[in-house]
Amino acid sequence: MVYVDQVLIGNLIMNYVILWAAGRLGQVSPRFPRLLLAAGVGSVYSLLSFFSSAGWLYNLPAKVLMSLVMVLIAFAPLSWRVLGGCFCFFYLASFSLGGMVLGFTYLLHSSPVIAGEAERITSVIGRYFWAVVLLALCFFWAVYVTGGWFFRKKGGLNRFQVPLGISIYGRNVKVNALVDTGNSLMDPLTGEPVIVVEYSAIKVILPSVVKVFFEKKELDYTSLLAALEGTSWAARFRVIPFHSLGMEHGLLVGIRPDEVEIDQNGGKVFVDRVVIGISRGRLNSGSAYHALLHPGLLEAA
């Protein structure tokens, strides 16, 4: 027998993993509370299967609609193109994990189960429920890790990287950028997209006052603004709020460049309506890229 608590908690865990995997595959980085809320909504939906009067909620349109609601809760607001990708990855992860659960159930059960015996199948799943969920999650994680390693080993990550050239007052610097579909940062004043660049990669073209600011232990935005006042850099200065895992109310110093050159498909695209957000930390544990490119810049190009 499958119990209500098994269905509720088991689905909560699996829904969370599925949504997390969909976000990773879609290169979106949602916050933990939103993933948990979306997973919880899906888990409560699964409980309705215990009520015969709620059968209409399990037809195809209702299932697709519930999947869409979960994806929107977890990842919106993003462009429809990115959300569509996350929606597809959601089903890819769902079918993969669901298949693993069913496969491990049959693997652990020692006697044959006839496909038509619905009650017996339910009993078998209930008997091995937590063991199967744990095995499926471990195997799913192993596939994700090894698949990601193989993908990077074969250079697949390079397909999502583009070289950038950033120009300010005649000074130029070139960096490799990862096209980050989860980067929805915009300048709150102008609505211009933000390219996040590591401080170490861009400092050669920054004025000394900005370098002093970033090399202090504590960031003092008021002092930086006061130091830039009266200079030509003041009009380029921005403070960009952002949210990320572990940081609810973060701030990035932004600089408006003269121009950004994007090397795309062998051609060059030049954009000037953009802001460079400067990150003190590293964006990549290796040296493959040092910037995160807003996907809207490629779509506009």
| Poorly predicted regions | 154-158
Bin the helical content. 40-55%
Order of helices and strands: HHHHHHEEEHHHEEEEEEH
Instruction: Give the beta-strand count.
Output: 9
Shape summary: elongated
Secondary-structure content class: alpha+beta
Q: Which strand-content bin applies to the residues?
A: 15-25%
* Helix count, DSSP H or I runs of 4 or more residues: 10
- Count of distinct structural domains: 2
The spatial strand order of the largest sheet comes to 4-5-8-3-9-2-1-6-7
Cα distance spanning the termini: 57 Å
Mean of residue pLDDT? 77
Query: Radius of gyration in whole Å, from Cα?
Result: 24 Å
Q: Report the major sheet.
A: 9 strands, mixed
What would you note in describing this structure?
The protein has helices at 4-25, 32-47, 60-75, 80-108, 118-127, 129-153, 199-202, 208-215, 221-228, 295-300, and strands at 161-168, 171-179, 194-198, 237-244, 247-255, 259-264, 267-271, 275-279, 291-293. The chain has 301 residues and is an alpha+beta fold. The protein has two domains: 4-154; 158-300, Beta Barrel (Cathepsin D, subunit A, domain 1), CATH 2.40.70. It has a nine-stranded mixed sheet. α4 packs across α6 (129-153). The longest helix has 29 residues, at 80-108. The radius of gyration is 24 Å and the shape is elongated. Residues 154-158 have low confidence and may be disordered.
